[in-house]
Amino acid sequence: MDPAAFRGVPWLTGARLVREANGWHVVFRLETPDVQPESHGGPPVGVDCGVTRTLALSDGTFRDLPVLLSPGEASRLLRLKRKAARQRRARPRDAPASNRLRRTYDQIALVRARTKRRRDDWAHKVTTGTSREFGLVVIEDLRVGAMTRSTRGTVENPWRKVRQKAGLNRGILNAAWGHVGAHLVYKTARVGGVLVRVPAPYTSQRCHVCEVVDRVSRPDQATFLCTSCGWSGNADTNAILNIRAAGLSFMGVEISGLPGTAKRQPPGKAA
Ligand SMILES: [Zn+2]
Predict the structure, then answer these.
(1) Can 133 be counted among the known catalytic residues?
(2) What pLDDT does 199 receive?
């Protein structure tokens, strides 16, 4: 058998049984050969995480996390939570959970496990698609992004609907954003693409055309209207075009077009 025929083919190195709320699962461990991929050559894109749209891409498209539970499943979850609350109240103070209460907890865990699987499935499909389509993916440094968003949504410009939705789904959304970032790291590398995380302060207040920063350019949550050059459009689109521009300038300055080798050098530590 010609060993070259197996170039790039992953092989199975192990398997284990895992018990989760919704039953037993087999987890396979695959080892992928260390093949240097050709550089991707696809177009650059900026990806921003938000509450109203889960992911906004700089090409003007969106990738939204679907509703994870059907109306029937959602009302069942609500019923189970109420049942658990009743069963908790019924037991004497400091008594251990009754068998009935534990059974209710198990049923709640089952619904939650289903939610988690659907969310993970979405994150995998979205990141596989993005890394195949685009050669350079620029995302906002999430630690900075989270602060920007809370300022944007609550302090500067309170917008009740956004806050409500954020409150309902914050856990799910945070996890989804986290998975998207983590998957993109290895999925872009695997196909010869590059992922760049940029700190992006003022992305929501800076005009992506003339680069003037002015908080007055945001008349409301959804709109950007530049007070300097007059560009107007969707506020999320303006923000994500800023993120994309930051990533492009980072690539140009630091590694001058060598896809596959994007590593941010610490300042003053030249090779
Ligand atoms: Zn402008």
Answers:
(1) no
(2) 78
Rounded to the nearest angstrom, the distance between the alpha carbon of 213 and the centre of ligand 1 is 8
Ranges of the chain whose pLDDT falls below 50: 144-166, 168, 253-271
Question: pTM value?
Answer: 0.73
| Closest C-alpha to 187, from 145, 141, 142, 139 | 139
Tell which phi-psi region holds residue 223, choosing left (phi > 0), alpha (psi between -120 and 50) or beta.
beta
Residue 53 CA, ligand 1 centroid: distance in Å = 24
- The string of DSSP letters for 228-249 reads TT--EEEHHHHHHHHHHHHHHH
17 found inside a domain: yes
Range of 64's domain?
3-36+46-263
Inside any domain, residue 75: yes
pLDDT score recorded for residue 40: 87
Interval between CA 223 and ligand 1 midpoint (Å):
13
- How many independent structural domains does the chain possess? 1
Proportion of the chain in helix, strand, coil states, percent, rounded to 5: 45, 20, 35
**Residue 140 annotated in active site:** yes
User: Which is nearest to 175 in space by CA: 49, 43, 83?
Assistant: 49
- DSSP code per residue over 87-105: HHHHSPTTPPPPHHHHHHH
2 among known catalytic residues: no
Q: Is residue 41 in some structural domain? A: no
